[in-house]
Design brief:
Main location: membrane
Membrane topology: Peripheral membrane protein
Number of strands: 25
Strand order of the largest sheet: 12-13-16-17-15-14
Number of helices: 11
Distance between the termini: 29 Å
Number of domains: 2
Subcellular location: Membrane
CATH architecture of the largest domain: Beta Barrel
Largest sheet: 6 strands, antiparallel, barrel
Shape: elongated
Keywords: Coiled coil, Lipid transport, Lipid-binding, Membrane, Phosphoprotein, Transport
GO cellular component, one term: plasma membrane
Length: 650
Amino acid sequence: MNISQDPGWQPLLVDRSAAQDDSGDDDDETASPADKSELHCAIKSLSLKLDDLSTCNDLIAKHGAALQRSLSELDGLKIPYESSEKLKAANERATLFRITSNAMINACRDFLELAEIHSRKWQRALQYEQEQRVHLEETIEQLAKQHNSLERAFRSAPGRAANPTKSFSEGSLLTPKGEDSEEDEDTEYFDAMEDSTSFITVITEAKEDRKAEGGTTGSVDWTSSDNVLDGASLVPKGPPKVKRRVRIPDKPNYSLNLWSIMKNCIGRELSKIPMPVNFNEPLSMLQRLTEDLEYHHLLDKAVHCTSSVEQMCLVAAFSVSSYSTTVHRIAKPFNPMLGETFELDRLDDMGLRSLCEQVSHHPPSAAHYVFSKRGWSLWQEITISSKFRGKYLSIMPLGAIHLEFQASGNHYVWRKSTSTVHNIIVGKLWIDQTGDIEIVNHKTQDRCQLKFLPYSYFSKEVARKVTGVVSDSQGKAHYVLSGSWDEQMECAKIVQSSPSSPGSDGKQKTVYQTLPAKLLWKKYPLPENAENMYYFSELALTLNEHEEGVAPTDSRLRPDQRLMEKGHWDEANTEKQRLEEKQRVSRRRRLEACSRGCGTEEAEKEADVYMPLWFEKRLDPLTGETACMYKGGYWEAKERQDWHMCPNIF
């Protein structure tokens, strides 16, 4: 199988019925059944060449003999002694030439015999490797099926406890999933991390006496400043000033086995695996980044917070909300072309302007800047690293996210967690978010520690659970956060903290007494018929809608993505190949230009360096990393409709 290198994925994520990436510069060759016929053809060609050599040998022998006869006849003539010696020398050279030509023919014949002998050995070895590979694939699939059968048997065993009832303990509000749980018999489960929660919370009444020996007392009630948290998630959606589309063409029902493609790619960087658009959704990675702004109203609300720890609660809820769109979105977004952009100009209804640009191709990296007229700005440069591990796919977004509130000067920085797509081999694909996120306010040194717990059927914890604690610069905890990344987040104000008794494992946890929790964020319901529209949210449905006046590099103008959205997947695959080849040609030209003045390795590095149009590399003083930051000029160019500087990438 011929597997080409593809430097793009960005992704976030893979779809069972489709897949792609947008560019490849290198090719890896692996053995395939066609190798046998190629070997036979090579041997046949060698045989024909050997026949030609034999014919040449016969002719050489014939003419050589005639030459020697002629020389012998000349030797019998009466000629001067000097000429006789020269004829004798010519006769000897002709004899040596004939001997040498015979030796060459014999060596060629020996080479062909050896090639035939070794080719049979190679064929047997190749056949054995192919049989072993097929056997290994069948064994892996059988093990996966047995694993799922054992889980089903365990779940159906008598005496299994039902889902825990709603309680505020072990670090979070446990919300029951009940009978509508998305999990089914094909779901794969993993054990939760050891010591998944480092604290215990107990709800107390507002007026209850909370003084206890060894405890730390706090305020006894929600204060007026906390009222900004009330209904933070319950912002009604008013009618949009611009009518936007509410649906896209239904996803075609194309079947394509993901395992048949991915089984050859275990351990490889996902962005270097060429895949058809069948594994994609009709949005680019730049548009997926922009989707993080769906719950921007949390930041609009945070602008009015007078308390920095209270503001941190809303920032934490916003950081969690960005994962809510991924719970059903197992499809992979299109990897942007180098220089591709995406703008979201929604000052009228959302109060913000957003711009993304693909600033690097090796590795794939996107820069993003958002300005809100409500008093905040956000920027990030995200590089997507992804690896296929056999049964699951890991997606690691690398890079820091910055959020700054202009009025207070509070500057928050955090990084995204790891996304994992499970059941690649067998069963229903599902996605999980795992890892820790630390949000730091670099002005006040307030911190929020969020923990995304990996889902396990054998754990008493609810699925997709998130817990967290908001602390000030002195390390004093003020709020406990709890919820799930696909549904909602709540916060509870801490009124007292104390150490618990050591558990059976000898570990001690902190006990927080809290006031009743308040809802920070709740996910919007999906649009009607979302299951046939790639599970897009209301905002996602509008992102690829055609708009006048955007830059010629905007993702909305990408032809293969547009064809896929319309349901023309065959044409989209053809167009995708054209775009990939165009990008490869562009890179080769840069490489040729760079190689004139420097070595090969240095030239390749130079060829991969792209000068973004709207962003520039700067040293981030907070993280110490070099990142692309917005340098301005895009919206002014849009107002003038002057796009002469934009590259022709589509």
